[in-house]
Model the fold of this input.
Amino acid sequence: MKDIAPVKNIYENSIGQYLYVENSDQKAWLLPKSCIKASLNIYQPSSNCGKIWKYMLPYVYMFPFMHKPFHLTVVDCNIDTMFVKYLEEIFEKDVQLSIFFGTPSVHQKPTIQISKGEKLLGYCKVTKNNNVIAIFRNEKDILSYLNVKQVTNCPICLGLESVRDSYIFVQNTAKTINSKYCDRLTPMHVNFLKQLAEKTFQVLLYKNTDFKKNIDQLELTLDILGKEQKLIILKSIERVHKYYGTKEVQFCVAHRDFTPWNTYITGNELFVFDFEYAQKTYPPYIDMFHFFTQQALMVNHNTAEEIYRNCKKLDLFWKVIDNPDQVYIAYILDTISLYLSRNHGQLTENEKKRISILIELINLLNKGMILCIR
Done:
């Protein structure tokens, strides 16, 4: 079992206060038994199996003989009292903490849901990693900027503090136990991105944008790739730079991790969170491609050709984006840049596979095989 600050000494106890769950992807959760319905909101599944598991858990956890098939262990643990006190000063007394220990990666960090009864109060993230502290600071800056620009339906940062030897990022939430999850692009998603395009736009020279800076960084991190892959990317970078040229552009905030698992629907409104990788000057609506492509890669496990065919069916791209094939190439280059810079070239096999699919996708786009301007 995982011991990650501020949680220590997780140990099995048949009458314990928590359920510990660890799946085949080495992701783990710690859920308080006293509020299992609320605690499950820390788990936002994308696969059908995950959705079934989430639906069944409130019923099966009461039967010990069902624990093993559902990968459940009843445990107790110690949670740092100073950490709990810090959260209770922000929210209220006697809160319950539900913990996701983070996706295994170089930026792994636990995410903690704060609730009381069935009311969700907020979320926090914890780290000792200096690189992760930097992205916490970026998220705080972005959320403050969005608040000033009156962008709605995103969190407010309630604190970024050092507690003992860890940094804690805290935010509020509009999520409820009745909030829904949507794994396809809808007009609600487009309307949120329209907000970003209209409320945060800046007119500046392309060479001064965050987007160009990150694409330039990509050129410095290509040695890990094969010769043919490197050539495809270099030609694509040249094409993107030529497209935006030396002229002024109207760019805006981009989330850069706009996915089904970083969004939820409360009432009839879409809410967006996890702005860790967000930047202020990016092509408008570029996040649409991330939402679509990450669902295709991470959940549907599509090939490049399958991604093409499905993308062609999405009229939303052509309705709101000028030259969508070019913006798609720009998006893919930025995503590969993020992979390579974040991991310092140390990629997992899954990440290498995804990058290969993305490069194949670029190659097809450059050849104009599927996407074209209508």
Remarks:
- The mean pLDDT is 91.
